[in-house]
Predict the 3D structure of the following.
Amino acid sequence: MRFPPEFKVVRDQEKCTKCKRCTIECTFEVHGYDKKKKRMVANDENCVACQRCVFTCPTKALVIERRPPTFSDHPTWTEWIRRDIMTQAKTGSVILASMGNEKPYQSLFDSIVIDACQVTNPAIDPLREPMELRTYLGRKPEKIEIENDALKTEIAPNLKLETPIMIAHMSYGAISLEVHKALATAAKEQGTMMGSGEGGLHKELYPFADHIIVQVASGRFGVHEEYLKIAAGMEIKIGQGAKPGIGGHLPGPKITEPISETRMIPVGTDALSPAPHHDIYSIEDLSRLIYALKEATRYKKPVFVKIAAVNNSAPIATGIIRAGADAVVLDGFRAGTGAAPQVIRDNLGIPIEAAIAAVDQRLREEGIRHWGSIIASGSIRTSADVAKAIALGADAVYIGTAALIALGCTVCKKCYTGKCTWGIATQVPKLRKRLDPEKGAKAVSNLIQAWNHELKEILGALGINSVESLRGNRERLRGVGLSQPDLDVLGILPAGK
Amino acid sequence: MIMDAKGLHYKALNKLIEDAINNSAKKIKITNVNGQRYIGGGIKGNVEIEIHGTPGDDLGSFMDGPTITVYNDAQDGIGNTMNSGKIIVHGDARDIVGHSMRGGKIFVNGDVGYRVGIHMKEYKENFPVIIAAGSAGDFLGEYMAGGRIVVLGMKDSDSEIVGDWIATGIHGGMIYIRGKVEEHKLGVAAKIAEFSQEDRKYLRNLLKEFCKTFGYNVKKILDAEFTKITPMTHRPYGKMYTE
Ligand code: SF4
Ligand code: SF4
């Protein structure tokens, strides 16, 4: 017995020319041609509403509709809870899911508003005045000493960004080489960084290495001396927001020849990333790996440490910074993923907004805020989210899903199948071809540029002329409809106060 | 070239080593080593480093090619994520030997600690090998994805050759233990396979260089019972997930 379909393929038979293009575009085997009836038919059950056929149909004959709920309503036993139970009763397996948390928790970002100048403190017009978005990530000195007109203080390596927006770590393997190329090109064009993800770096990405932060995760896939040395920076991944506390798992069938070459494991074997790094069971062990990476690259590059945002993020983050990391990356509980157990994705971790505020506050209280930067990621959807994240205390953000949407992802949530019709989360050569890296780069670059403009507008309205002055400036934020404990954690006042 | 590590911080010592390699030193002897970490970290080429004293953690991490010989005991994390090359330890080595090692050889003439060979993997010409003449602690070869681990248990007849939870999550590579290993010591996804004539032949080859290094007799070593531990499958978690 199968579930009633979630979506319905509606075809305007008048408009349909039976060109069969939809049968090629759809990778979920929905469309077909019925020879007897001499018309196109659809198998609704398989449709994931990715909209590929809708966009590509030459005569625009297709519409995908959501079918009305087929189960009788119940506020506790929602249709999805019932569907999941039935699936698990059948298979006895863990339910896999893609993209971010789907539970309707309250959005803190959407409960925060930004201040603006009126009369007494003039706004700045970003069209007339220079606005500084340049951001440096890494350890800053306590004070600067000058001797004989020359800088005496030794400055730790910092990454110089032209915008506080970076492109998040998404591994080659989860996404295609074309996507990696598009993202790297965009990062270079915008003077920012892209994360390699934990699957190594394809040789074709090497020319972009000075705009790439390479990741070192528990599986150490593709991590070797050259990978570390060519990169702009390194990032140890302890955890990720979509699946805090659990490891990664790229199934064997997805380890094709080029993936195997980059990850440096044989074709067809599972790429398992254990939940912990087995050489890291404490802050002291973490420090050992941070310095192993610094030693291996002769102290020329910063080392970041990424953790999922969890209850204890603040003390953990100070430990990370004290262990020698140049930045702590906080990944919120709404962060995207190619594949994660649904129960983990939807229920573990805490909102990024709360984690940023808690970590920034703690580092300030301990007087070590300048020792390392704070990078926020996980569901940064708009330039407003960027501004709010920075005002809460972040130095920069990573965008992942937003960059994929710029590339054409429609958030159909089927990344784990490897059948992405938009040629993003796939390794199938003919699907990969659907994404032109050059056009893709332009799209992502445009998105960052647009957000940069908007950030400047926000800064102007706030009457400040650099993103530096926004950092940790919680005085300029207000909460709407938040409880006092929430406001306390965020360190902001309620609107009107 | 001889270096005196006495009183040097690891940062200074490793800078000296880097400079020497950049000046095309082929042989470096370091004396008075006393706990300095990361010796040989991220170095490449065919340089040989001789260490007198006790090196600190992460000896030869990310190393790609060189040979390091330690005439004493080594500490944690030797050969961490090493790509190729060789590390020879005349004494004992401690925990997490060869963590995520992808190629090269680690020969230890004494015991090795806990979590040895975790997530070792092989790829094409990269093939990692860890051989210990003594015994090994718990969690040997966890998540192992390739290469070979050999534990000979020849040092101390009182202690166990190998600890518990062997090769949990193993999905590639193989472990040979000289002696009998009870099934209950194995972790999930590992199994005991028959030790055949083929294996004996293979092991003879694998042990040759090790025996030459430390002066053992291959024949004598092989004249014993061996346990061979392999993955049950290359995809241990293949059936755990559904859509
Ligand atoms: S292409 Fe996408 S939207 Fe169209 S039928 Fe296939 S799965 Fe449904
Ligand atoms: S990347 Fe592809 S498969 Fe994943 S949600 Fe986007 S469109 Fe769907």
About this structure: The radius of gyration of chain A is 24 Å. Chain A is about 30% helix and 15% strand. Chain A touches chain B at residues 87-88, 91, 93-96, 218-220, 223-226, 228-229, 249, 251-252, 260, 264-266, 268-270, 272, 274, 278-279, 288, 291-292, 295-299, 341, 416-417 (CB under 8 Å).
